[in-house]
Design a protein that fits this description.
This protein is of the alpha/beta class. It has two domains: 172 residues, D-Maltodextrin-Binding Protein, domain 2, CATH 3.40.190; 156 residues, D-Maltodextrin-Binding Protein, domain 2 (3-Layer(aba) Sandwich), CATH 3.40.190. Strands 1, 2, 3, 4, 5, 6, 7, 8, 9, 10 and 11 form an eleven-stranded mixed β-sheet that branches.
């Protein structure tokens, strides 16, 4: 999942992890696990140090590109896996990961703390770790200066297409999520017509989130000329968090009727030589200590309902009450077809 801020992760970040009650050395010989992730994975050093003190199990964090590229590598190397645990498969690619059978059952103790709507794999191979809604954000100042109203939903958005920048779903995770939001809203008979309206109305299409948010968006770092951008519901608190001095109100708002909920999963890679330790790692990722660190590291929401959110999220996060969603099997069966149809409609 692409994030609201660039997150630098060391290619080999060695940490100690205890996922279940244990003492150092109880797993026998020293083990080093390889955690394969997308490039936006991050966790506080203090969290890692806490677990380093409790176990002899070490972990190398291996960033492998964006979410799609990471999964592709895991599938291509499944007979000789790159690592022991994979993090970052989201619900737009979940069915592919399960169909390719790259995961072992994880046997997670805290899965009951995760709401049912996030638990999309009833075989418990893919464990939900976090979620965050992809939504259209708007520049509050731009609209206030013109005394105009930002869009509330997808219908409103079509009337302001020339103000919108979106990411290509063939190259961008939020771009794909936004495409799926329009498919969920307008169905097979209407979503291409909707995108024709956006195209004819002057929507801008770019390859990725960074180019859209920090290039074209008027409230991004590049001070672009588009007051609407496909990004995340976590944009408002993150904009506040990185502001100095801290504003009383976020400069970014969210059109809550445009959202699609993304869920990220972790799983034990089939072929690992350390399945027991790998399961402990996945359990750790669903511990409260890890879960409560997620919002200000990866700028998404923890999967556990009892994880406490940081105050800036509590105060400024825009949470859609009914984000769009599609069954993973449907996405898996038609993802490439939908992307091809979108390309034909919007770019050709």
């Amino acid at each position: 999942m692409q994030r609201l801020a660039a997150i630098a992760v060391a290619v080999a970040l060695v940490v100690g992890i205890a996922a279940t009650p244990a003492t150092a050395g109880d797993s026998g010989d020293d083990v080093t696990l390889r955690l394969v992730t997308h490039d936006s994975f991050a966790i506080s050093k203090s969290v890692l140090r806490d677990f380093t003190k409790r176990t002899d199990i070490e972990v190398e964090v291996l960033p492998a590109g964006d979410a799609g590229a990471t999964l592709n590598q895991a599938i291509l190397t499944k007979d000789d896996p790159l690592g022991d645990v994979l993090f970052g498969v989201d619900n737009t690619f979940l069915s592919r990961a399960l169909d390719e059978d790259i995961f072992l059952p994880a046997n997670v103790a805290n899965i009951s703390k995760v709401p049912a709507e996030l638990r999309l794999d009833d075989t418990n191979r893919a464990v939900p770790i976090d979620h965050g809604a992809v939504c259209v954000n708007f520049d509050k100042r731009w609209y206030d200066e013109r005394d105009e109203q930002p869009p509330r939903d997808l219908d409103d958005l079509a009337e302001q297409a020339d103000r919108l920048v979106v990411e290509n779903p063939a190259t961008s995770s939020p771009g794909l999520a936004f495409l799926l939001a329009t498919i969920d809203r307008y169905g097979d008979d209407g979503w291409r017509d909707y995108w024709t309206r956006l195209r004819d109305g002057g929507v801008e299409v770019v390859n990725g989130w960074e180019e859209a948010f920090n290039g074209s968006f008027s409230a991004g770092e590049g001070n672009g000329d588009k007051p609407l951008v496909v990004s995340y519901a976590s944009s408002p608190p993150v904009a506040v968090y990185f502001s100095d001095p801290r504003p009383d109100e976020s400069p970014i708002g969210t059109a809550l009727g445009t959202c699609f909920d993304q869920i990220e999963f972790a799983g034990v890679l089939r072929g690992t030589e350390h399945p027991r330790e790998a399961r402990r790692l996945v359990n750790f990722m669903l511990s409260r200590r890890f879960q409560e660190d997620i919002p200000l590291q990866m700028f998404v929401f923890p999967a556990r309902t009892d994880a406490q959110l940081p105050p800036v999220f509590e105060e400024f996060a825009d949470v859609p009450s009914d984000p769009a969603t599609l069954p993973p099997d449907d996405i898996g069966a038609r993802r490439e077809q939908w992307i091809d149809e979108w390309t034909e409609t919007v770019l050709r």
